[in-house]
Automatic annotation (TrEMBL):
Signal peptide: none annotated. This is DUF4116 domain-containing protein. It comes from Noctiluca scintillans. InterPro entries: DUF4116. Transmembrane segments: none annotated. It comes from the Eukaryota. Residues 1-32, 49-96, 103-146, 205-253 form the DUF4116 domain.
């Protein structure tokens, strides 16, 4: 019965018996159904299980932030980089500012430089290791290194699209005869193609989030900021569950149209509206109608 329940609503994990909160199958079912923060109700012993957490990671990388013991485990987090480099965002701060750990991490996937402490993002040795593994890691280096000839040359050699992250001066240099990018028109065409592919990926991702919040508005809380700032997606989310307004960007929490839709669904959503909207006549009327019905 408990397994069937969490398959319908992952948050029901908090209400099952203590023994079931230690059950791997129940936890995986809760994570799969979502919202992913349901996993925080699992027993700590489960969230310290490496294999289980890796399985959760395959469902949603946000699950990792609830594995408080493992995010401090150097070897485990280095393995995570090879599974999903973006999940390294949840690594403990001490790991992300430790030079040895970050050097090993960028050698596995250079893009984890994005999550490194600023002192590491300006370390020439670590940045060189990162861009040699993945040229696009140049985006996350400090500006001085994005103007460093050896660093930029290594990045462009690994991935010619990395030139877009170099400083203007270095871009001009890489466009000169004899440079790795002597055919600047070819590079521009390649970059346009790359941008086009990324746009398609964003559209597909947008559709996935739209579908997710249509089924459960509170899934908006798992989305990146660009999704939580998308008026169409947020509108669908608050129509599904008015309390999804709490996860909207501050800009959209100040949108009268979206706030009205949220309050119509759940009057409690008003607490998440921008302060300047809370005295809006339209919203006050909705609250009065709700109170009259109550």
């Amino acid at each position: 019965i408990a397994l069937a329940a969490v398959r319908q609503n992952g948050l029901l994990l908090q209400h099952v018996s203590s023994s079931l909160q230690e059950d791997r199958e129940v936890l995986l079912a809760a994570a799969f159904k979502g919202p992913i923060h349901a996993v925080k109700h699992a027993k700590a012993s489960l969230l310290s299980d490496r294999d289980l957490v890796l399985s959760l990671l395959q469902i949603n990388r946000l699950a990792l932030k609830f594995a408080r013991k493992l995010v401090t485990d150097r070897e485990f987090m280095l393995h995570v980089v090879t599974v999903d480099w973006e999940a390294f965002e949840h690594a403990a701060p001490d790991l992300r500012k430790e030079f040895g750990t970050m050097r090993s991490a960028v050698q596995r996937d250079g893009r984890v430089l994005r999550f490194a402490h600023s002192d590491i993002q300006k370390d020439r040795g670590v940045v060189l290791a990162a861009v040699r593994q993945n040229g696009l890691a140049l985006e996350f280096a400090m500006q001085a290194l994005r103007g460093d000839e050896e660093v930029v040359n290594a990045a462009v050699k690994q991935n010619k699209a990395a030139w877009q992250f170099a400083t203007r001066g270095m871009q001009e240099k890489f466009g000169a005869p004899g440079s790795p990018l002597n055919d600047i028109q070819s590079t521009l065409a390649y970059t346009r193609e790359l941008v086009s592919k990324r746009a398609i990926e964003r559209d597909l991702d947008r559709e996935r989030w739209m579908s997710a919040v249509r089924q459960d508005g509170l899934r908006l809380g798992e989305a990146p900021l660009e999704v939580r700032d998308d008026a169409d997606i947020v509108s669908v989310a608050v129509q599904s569950d008015g309390l999804a307004l709490r996860h909207a960007s501050s800009r959209l929490q100040g949108s009268l149209q979206i706030v009205v839709a949220a309050v119509q669904r759940n009057v409690e959503a008003l607490r998440h509206a921008a302060p300047e909207l809370k005295r809006e006549p339209t919203l006050l009327r909705l609250i009065k109608e709700h109170d009259d019905l109550a």
